[in-house]
Amino acid sequence: MSVVVPVFNEEAVLSELRHRLTATLEKTSARFEVIFVDDGSFDSTPALSDRICDEDPRFKCVHLSRNFGHQAAVSAGLRYAGGDVICLMDADLQDPPEILPRLLAQWEKGADAVYAVRRDRKEHWFIVVLYHFFYRILSHLSSVSIPLDAGDFCLLSREVVDAINRLPEKERFVRGLRAWVGYNQVAVEYARDARHGGQSKYSLLGLTRLAITGIVSFSDRPLLYVTIAGLVISGAALIYGAFLVVLAIAFKHLVTGYASLMSAVLFLGGIQLVAIGLVGIYVGRIFREVKGRPTYVVRSLHGLEEQS
Q1: Residues contacting residue 135 through CB under 8 Å, at least 6 positions apart
Q2: Which domain holds residue 240?
Q3: Cα Rg of the chain, angstroms
Q4: Which of 4, 73, 214, 243 could pair with 39 as two cysteines, CB 3.0-4.6 Å apart?
Q5: What is the count of structural domains for the chain?
Q6: Per-range mean pLDDT, top range of 51-65, 142-156, 180-194
Q7: The predicted structure's pLDDT at residue 197
Q8: CATH of the domain at 88
Q9: How many helices (H) and strands (E) does the chain have?
Q10: CA-CA distances (angstroms) from residue 210 to 47, 69, 173, 185, 304?
Q11: CB under 8 Å to 207, separation ≥6 — which residues?
């Protein structure tokens, strides 16, 4: 079993994470490795992770050259994981390591992917509400059935991981890719804890970017909705224009009004800007993909061999 843990400035939790992971995994019958993916930390996380690797060879580390983001770090961990099953979890202990045996039990029963569903979150109510609406909007828009309230905390078989690693896209939304590749997938519910220490590395802007990546990666419906809105507004404008012509011809009545005219112009201008911006998001993603830059750059490895 490989456990992939992205870390970014997590010096406050690494020791406790190591203790709880080791205590949990040693109770299973599986041989295991834990792969820290240091996503360009600038505190003592790189040194602490290397020291843990020196003290226990079951722990290994991938050091990225800079901060590439959580999804890139997860992708790097999947690339270097060598186990028959691979678990993904965050370092902040909001995803309890004690849940891993439950995920492993489902795999032993025949599941190819076991994802953890958050039924209780000990976070600020505003963040909880945002996540609630995001998952439901994504589920509605996506052409793939993406489970509600399921993050990256999961267990994947080697076959599933190999399928994800073969996908060519550079900007990755891993929980969406997990759903896209298919196979036999099973849910396990759990209560998500509060952070053990430190601060969340996802700002509101970062969460917004992640949400946009998820929606743009798995749906083109926003473009369809903007097109439909344009057709509806154009149809309404045509009908209104015809109505004004009838008034002018039949009743010699001309409708005047600067305020109403400006309101219509500003409304249509706003719709156009939103549409252009939406198209720009998709074009920007295409631009980043066609450049072919790697998702991440590895600075050094500790306890691992370079992948071809």
Answers
A1: 146, 148, 149, 150
A2: 221-290
A3: 25
A4: 73
A5: 2
A6: 51-65
A7: 53
A8: 3.90.550.10
A9: 10, 8
A10: 29, 10, 8, 23, 29
A11: 127, 130
